[in-house]
Amino acid sequence: MAYIPATWDMYDLIQGVLQAPWYHMVFEVALILLIFKIYVSQSFSPEKTVLTEKEKDLLVEEWQPEPLTPNVPDDHPIIQSMEKYCIEGQNGKYITVNGKSCINMSTFNFISMVGNKQIQDRAVKALRVYGVGSCGPRGFYGTMDVHLELEDELAKFMTSEEAILYSYSFATIASAIPAYSKRGDIIFADENVGFAIQKGLIASRSHIKWFRHNDMEHLESLLIEQNKADKKNPKKAKVTRRFIVVEGLYLNTGKICPLPKLVELKWKYKVRIFLEESMSFGVLGETGRGVTEHFDISRDNIDLIAGSLENSIASVGGFCCGKKFVIDHQRLSGLGYCFSASQPPMLAASAIEALHILQEQPRLLVDLREKCEKIHDKLKNVTHIQLIGDPISPIKHLMLTEPASDRDLDMHTLEMVVDYAMNEGVALTIARHLDSEENNLLPPSIRLSVNCELTDEEINKVVSVISDAFREVLQKLSSVDMKSPLDSVKQGDGEQIASR
Amino acid sequence: MATGRGSINRKLEDNKKDVLCTQMPESHNNRPKNGHKNGLRSNGKNGSHTSQSRWDEDFFESFEETPLLVAILTYLGYGLLVVIGQIRDLMRAYGIEKDKSCTEPKLEGFVPLYQSWESFYTRNVYRRIRDCWNRVVGSKPGTRITILDRDSCDYGWTFELTGKKLNVMNFGSYNYLGFAENSGPCCDQVQAVTEKYGVGVCASRQEMGYMDIHRELDLLVAEFLGVEAAITVPMGFATNSMNMPALVSKGSLILSDELNHASLVLGSRLSGALIRTYKHNDMDDLEMKLRDAVCNGQPRTHRPWKKILIVVEGVYSMEGSIIRLPDVLRLKKKYKAYVYLDEAHSIGAMGPHGRGVVDYFGLDPRDIDIMMGTFTKSFGSAGGYIGGSKSLINHLRTQAHSFIYSTSMSPPVAQQVISVMKVIMGKDGTNQGMKHIRQLAWNTRYFRKRLQDRGYIIYGNKDSPVVPLLLYMPSKVAMFSRETLKRGMATVVVGFPATPLIETRARFCLSAAHTKEMLDEALKIIDDVGDLLRLRYSSLKPPDFSEKDIQLIE
């Protein structure tokens, strides 16, 4: 398989030799002679400590490694809550947990594609042609005609020149960023970008400059700073690529990025924009084309758009789209594209069907927006709840208005809220994070996801259960002596939480 | 075995220290200076290591040295390609030749997204033979596939489907056990699940994306592997890249085989641990590095390492080699390291019960700290798993990126794994699983033996269903792929940079679903093309293993 070599230095080398001035060559030759002389001549070197085999054996004997993993017991709160709320059957608008039916306010099934009959039929049809797995990466007989069809459909839908399909959404942006941005390049990233982006940034080994969440002034000040540095060192600036990496709709905050301003900054400071639309694709905009459509900005302004097929589209996979010269590059240097088996054809087929449905029924998105605003409206004034997120965003975070000083304590409170709501028939989830690895850890929250098919009654029920849950739980906690719940939490789960 | 094929050497080390294992632990400082160490047996006798000699005597791997003349010619071939490429680039620069590559339009003030010389190889070498990859398939990846014919009217810059369909034998897909099917009981069960669950989950495991079918799958995988517990992830690549960071971190050392898969490399990098590579499957080198690491500690500070993780694959998909697992485990115990075993290509395909290389060597799966593998290959599905001790899995369930930040497995995909695994384990009440496993083992020996008899240079272990045939020259890569396809056989060819420059190869992936007739036909095609391209490079005596030891089940 022919992948691009990391660098092809030959051209550079020849150019360098041709352009070098004579005195430089003389200097180089002198250096080489010097190195040769040093190499030949015997030099004094202090004796190194050389361990005998016996000593080495002793050292080997002595060394005790840390255990591979800390001992996590079966009753760790996260495992417990996972096992407690294991879903029976379909993960749709309603879910069955422990034999009880609940309104699902926790999964990203925004436009109710899960369980759609039309999609299932298409999936089964594909199953009967292709089987389940593709048994190979795209390069080696893993490219089925449905993959090409889906790529075409996506490109057409996003009115871009080309789209590239990944078999997993997490791997999409995490592979796309390092494909372009290398060591020495500079990336300006929003501090609250999702975890997949954070991993992509690390993998790129570029220089990362974080700007405050959606704070364009801060971004601009960083850009100006960079501009000044560039002027000082124009040679370096000429080879340093600069990127802005943002999300369309932030999973972590439920807020929409200020794209018009970003595009303005892009052209002003000559930075490229990578836009991650996992949450906004199939959600924002008149027809679900994402945040670009929402702001009515031409997608030509964005260098790369990455999206997910796992949320609105309810399949598994991800994609990138953009200009041909941009996307084509990933076909040989996107790690998650080249080295992974391709998406199961039946999942690609169901994504195609979902895209069709999305285009045939624009009503879904109108409904979704309406429901989002309704819920936002009703929740924003509930006591004890600090509602985070834009009104039209289907993702909303519920934080405590009076957080305790201890993160674990808040987590525990929210877990109690979730338990309460679950009992009342509303499925909620806490937004889970790896506390130690997140770039900018937000306060604990319950993350609400809105489904477009919610009826008014269901919305009312959800809102009343949530407000009841917060009220009851906080009352219960405060009615007990302020010291004791803390103690009980600390004693009960302290150790486990600490290991989290 | 040694005397018979002592002359067949592993390619990655000098011939002199060919024999690795039995002479092990002290051998790196009193390594035989010269002469073939075909003294496996004599070494096997020395003291405490007699138990290992048993597996070693039946462990045959062949890595024939590249013939010198071929190497020179290959380099010349690349040299020519580069020279012509440079000339054509020059012509493009002056507008004499039209530049058809999709280059970036010049934007004032923007630094180009990638340098044009970065894509020199793509433009001038890869483009000429692009038709050998990314062929479009219009059917299930079974033993026969339908390839949609493509045509290029501009020498490989763009392709168009002609509408013609080629029905050819498939020796390219990783369908080792032949379960990539679109009918039969497994498929029926998958259909039922699709109708019950739909395809989407739309949530991560920790955020209400954990379903009963996932629980069932996790438990079954753990039972199949013979470990305490297991977790499953929807993408094989991500199983490595998203879970490794939860295991090691800064202050730990990863000892990684130099030929490890990109996902392992990425996972290692993301973990923040220091990575050192050792020579492919070279236990001497591994021990030397382990010893050095334990004795010297971390660089600069010389503090002891927190932990050392040895990362290996079961079967290497480009080399066809099998990990010397008994030795790895011995070293692991001696130096108290941990072992991460990636069985992407071996699970299902190796061992008398299809339970991977651990089963192949008859070892206890509990001795391996982290058992990783994928469902893409033998199970005809998608995704991956990690199995191990209860505390490891509990840790991953709370800490792994794949459990918190990404969607859990699609139910039909999970069901395919469950159904196939049950067949392999015989839980469906038939002996279909065993039949497939035996057939694959038989096919492997049969095919490898015939190829080696014919004088091709074949890499890898006699029991590895991945069979690389060395082509060496870049022009032969394209020719081989096109000619075999023309004659009705789909093969994978691999070249630089996925392999070393002069070791380009074709790769056959055998399947239990291949019949003897198909293998014979394939051999005939390979012979045809082999004669055309003069591929019989081998100068060694054919090995003496045989498929006769394997009992087929009727």
Task: Report on this structure.
The complex is a heterodimer of chains A (about 500) and B (about 550). Chain A is an alpha/beta fold. Chain A has 20 helices and 16 strands. In chain A, α9 links the parallel β6 and β7. The model of chain A is unreliable at about 1-5 and about 485-500 (pLDDT under 50). Chain B is built from 18 helices and 16 strands. Chain B has a seven-stranded mixed beta sheet with strand order 5-11-10-9-8-6-7, with helices on both faces. Chain B is globular, with a radius of gyration of 24 Å. The chains are: A alpha/beta (about 500), B alpha/beta (about 550). At the A-B interface, α1, α3, α4, β1 and α5 of A face α5, β2, β3, α6 and α7 of B.
Give the SSE layout.
The complex is a heterodimer of chains A (500) and B (554).
Chain A: H1 10-19, H2 22-40, H3 53-62, H4 77-84, E1 87-88, E2 94-97, E3 100-104, H5 117-130, H6 138-142, E4 143-144, H7 145-157, E5 162-166, H8 169-180, E6 186-190, H9 195-204, E7 207-211, H10 216-232, H11 234-237, E8 242-247, H12 259-269, E9 272-276, H13 291-294, E10 304-308, E11 318-322, H14 324-333, H15 335-338, H16 345-360, H17 363-379, E12 385-388, E13 395-400, H18 407-423, E14 426-427, E15 429-430, E16 446-449, H19 456-479, H20 483-498
Parallel strand pairs in A: 3-14, 6-7, 6-8, 8-9, 9-10
Antiparallel strand pairs in A: 1-2, 2-3, 5-11, 10-11, 12-13, 13-16, 15-16
Helix pairs in contact in A: 5-16, 7-16, 8-9, 10-12, 17-19, 18-19
Chain B: H1 2-5, H2 40-45, H3 50-57, E1 61-62, H4 68-93, H5 120-124, E2 136-137, E3 144-151, E4 160-170, H6 185-197, H7 212-225, E5 229-233, H8 236-243, E6 253-257, H9 262-271, E7 274-278, H10 283-296, E8 308-313, H11 325-335, E9 338-342, H12 356-360, E10 370-374, E11 384-388, H13 390-399, H14 401-404, H15 411-424, H16 432-453, E12 460-461, E13 466-472, H17 474-486, E14 489-490, E15 492-494, E16 504-509, H18 516-533
Parallel strand pairs in B: 4-14, 6-7, 6-8, 8-9, 9-10
Antiparallel strand pairs in B: 1-12, 2-3, 3-4, 5-11, 10-11, 13-16, 15-16
Helix pairs in contact in B: 6-15, 7-15, 8-9, 10-11, 15-16, 16-18, 17-18
Keywords (chain B): Acyltransferase, Endoplasmic reticulum, Lipid metabolism, Membrane, Pyridoxal phosphate, Sphingolipid metabolism, Transferase, Transmembrane, Transmembrane helix
Transmembrane segments (chain B): 68-87
Biased composition (Basic and acidic residues) (chain B): 10-19
